[in-house]
Amino acid sequence: MRRIALVLLLAVGCASTPRDDVRQAMAHWMTALNALDEARIVGAFAEDATAFFPVVKAERLDGHAAIAEVFRQYVAGTAKKTNIVPEDLRVQQHGDVAIVTFNVHNPSAVSRRTFVWRRDAGGWRIVHMHASNTPIRQ
To answer: What is the pTM of this model?
Structure first.
């Protein structure tokens, strides 16, 4: 019986693909964002990460510390947990780099998100995030 369980565990482990790992990393990050878990949100970013935020600053932010400060302010200014659900999520993987894109529809805008993930010895880390919002014309 133990042998069967071990074979099943190995089969399940072998069935996952690197793309699944990136999807899982993205899902964990979204869970952290929705839970307003600042440590997990910023912990996913590489030290050399860059980011564009839609309302914070028009210029690129460079480095983990600058990105962490934006998320610290976001968490401090958000009264309750959120329920942001990525739509039309797409993963394009090229070796140890993956690009994840998705939309989020809001009543007043479509939020477009692009994440560039890089796999290293510690797992998948975000090396770039681009966030932009396009107003919905009524």
So the answer is: 0.82
